[in-house]
Design a protein that fits this description.
Blueprint (H helix, E strand, L loop, with lengths): L1 E12 L10 E17 L4 E5 L2 E4 L6 H14 L4 E8 L9 H16 L6 H16 L5 H8 L2 E5 L2 E5 L5 E6 L6 H14 L1 H24 L2 H17 L5 H12 L4 E5 L6 E5 L3 H12 L3 E6 L6 E2 L1
Parallel strand pairs: 3-5
Antiparallel strand pairs: 1-2, 1-12, 2-5, 2-6, 3-4, 6-7, 8-10, 8-11, 9-10
The structure holds (3R)-3-hydroxy-3-methyl-5-(phosphonooxy)pentanoic acid.
Length: 306
């Protein structure tokens, strides 16, 4: 049996503005999705996850099944397999769980079948799987989860920047939402007020450029301040919600250096940075306000064979 894993991710700065060519920074976190593959003598793929065991002709576990289909077709190999998934990430909360499950499945199959795909090849193939399942997908999620670390995204260009190992506290609202609906919502606002919304988007780009410098300097106070500015700008794009704002203000009140949405907004998750005793205070405040608090760290680790 082969077991592989891949990390979730957060957007530190720049989500939504990145759709209009501004830079964004995303980073892997130390919460992972684990995929185990056991090859079988038949030609069916069965997936066990969330206490269910289903064949791949079902509509569930679409990312895992699409990854298996892609490997079968691309390498012209017919195989049967029992695939089992365990996750430390809540799904549909903007933390990159679908990209993580996709690439860890691709890696586990590649290792089991002796294909030997490397992390960048897995990232590319993972993006194809996400496109197949979702129709549209940014390349950022599958790249970050494949190679780990902090990634600066500018248009189609993506490059690693200096990694800063910081503790973070994620607050998942439990509210699921569609990234494409929220991207569309911003596009409508931008059509209505092209100059005004265009300026907000440029400002977010400027926040990301400052954020990059603060990350390189390791200036936590500065990073927190810029997260708060970024959040104010995202709020003006109307993608924050009462549930997100409650967790964000709660985290700040509990001593966070800064707190903001991570990802598309409209639900999903926020994250905060804090140090020392304030980490637990922020986590307790998030739980008290009805969020799922996840204490994590930024991580330099991408996909791995465990
Ligand atoms: O919530 P997520 O993880 O799907 O992130 C969306 C980030 C956006 O900038 C809003 C969209 C994108 O494709 O970059």
């Amino acid at each position: 049996m082969i077991r592989c894993s891949a990390p979730g991710k957060v957007y530190l700065f720049g989500e939504h503005a990145v759709v209009y060519g501004e830079p964004a920074i995303a980073c892997a976190i130390d919460k992972r999705v684990f995929t185990s593959v056991e090859l079988k003598d038949d030609d069916s793929v069965r997936v066990t996850a969330l206490n269910k065991r289903l064949y791949c002709d079902n509509q569930e576990f679409r990312y895992v099944c699409a990854a298996a289909k892609m490997i079968k077709e691309l390498y012209n190999i017919n195989f049967g397999a029992d695939i089992s998934i365990e996750s430390e990430l809540p799904s549909s909360q903007g933390l990159g769980s679908s990209a993580a499950v996709t690439v860890s499945t691709l890696m586990a199959l590649s290792e089991s079948l002796g294909i030997g795909l490397k992390d960048y090849e897995i990232a590319k193939l993972g993006h194809k799987v996400e496109l197949y399942v979702q129709g549209t997908a940014s390349q950022a999620d599958t790249l970050v989860t494949s190679i780990g670390g902090m990634i600066l995204i500018t248009g189609v260009e993506m490059s690693k920047i200096n990694f800063l190992n910081l503790p973070i506290i994620i607050g998942a609202t439990g509210i699921t939402r569609s990234t494409s609906d929220l991207v569309q919502k911003v596009a409508i606002l931008k059509n209505r007020y092209p100059k005004l919304v265009g300026s907000i988007i440029s400002c977010i780009g400027e926040v990301t450029r400052h954020g990059k410098s603060k990350l390189i300097e390791g200036d936590i106070t500065g990073i927190g301040e810029l997260m708060d500015i970024n959040q104010g700008l995202l709020e003006s794009l109307k993608i924050s919600t009462l549930e997100l704002n409650n967790l964000i203000y709660g985290a700040r009140r509990a001593g966070a250096f800064g707190a903001k949405i991570t990802g598309a907004g409209g639900g999903g998750s926020m994250y905060a940075i804090a140090q020392g005793a304030n980490i637990d205070k922020v986590a307790s405040q998030i739980t008290l306000l009805g969020g799922q608090a996840i204490k994590a760290h930024f991580s330099d680790r991408g996909i791995s064979v465990d």
